[in-house]
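User: Show me a protein chain along with its predicted structure.
Assistant: Here is one chain, sequence first, then C-alpha cells.
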Amino acid sequence: MKTETITTKYGQIEYAVKGNGKPVLFLHGGHSNCRETLFHKGFDPARFQLITPSRPGYGNTPLLNNNSPKEAAELIISLAEQLGLNKFIVYAVSAGGLTGIEMAGNYPERVEKLILASAVTKKWLDKNGKIYKTAKMLFNPKTESFVWGMMRFFSGIFPGAIASNFYPQFSKKRPHKLAKSDIKELITTFKHYHSKSGFMCDIEHDIEGDLISKIKCPTLIIHSKNDNSVSFEHAEYASTMIKNSKLIELDNEWGHMFWIGSDSTRPIKETIKFIEQ
C-alpha cells in the first residue's frame, strides 16, 4: 500500500489512502501503523475511501508533543482538513479508541459516525498489573525492534506455534488447533507491527471523565465477551456513556481480533450496515 507523509500545523503525519467514495478514517491499535489492512475487511474500495493515518509514535509519524489522545486527535483532524475531508466516519480499533472518542466528542461537525471496535474507552492498564509491567519491558523503544524482529523471524519458520502462543492474549476461549487460514492472516498482520514510541504512550493514555458522554453522533460498539486484551467492560462503559449508541456483543473464536476466523462475517457485515444506514 502506498503511504505519504505531510506536515500539518500540529506536526508530521504519515497516512495511507485507498479507494473512492464515503470516507472512513481508521485509527489503528497498538503496535500497528497505516500499513495494516486487517480492519479494512469487508470494505469495497469502489464504495469507500479508506484513510489510515499512523498515530503519533507509530510508523513515520513522530511522537513529538502529541502524547495524549486529545493531541493525537488534533493532529489527525488537521490531516483530514488538508485532505479536504469535511465529514467522515471514524473507525477506532483497540488502543486507538480514546483518540476516536476525543475526535467524536470534540469535533462533532467532522465526525458523522463513530465505530468502536474492540476499543479502549477509558483508562486501560493498571500500572501495578502484570500486563503493564510486561509491556514496559518488552515494547519500549529500546527493545521493541528486537522483539518484533525475532517474532517475525520465528513466524517464518514456525507460524503455527507463534499464532498459538499469541492466541491466549487475544481470546479467553480454550486454546485449540487453529485454522491454517487464520494463522496466515495473523502472521501477515504481524509483518507490519512495530511498537516504536507509540505503545508506551498508549498504555498511559486517558481522557477527561465526561468527554465520552458528550458524543452525540451515532455510535456502533463491537466487542467480544471473549476479548482477553481489552475487557468487555470497556464496551459496556461506552454503551452506558454514549446515548446514541448500539452495542453488539460477540461470542467469537478470536476474541479481540474479531476480523479473523470463520465467525468474522457477522461483525464485518454489521459494520457496513451501520455505516450505510
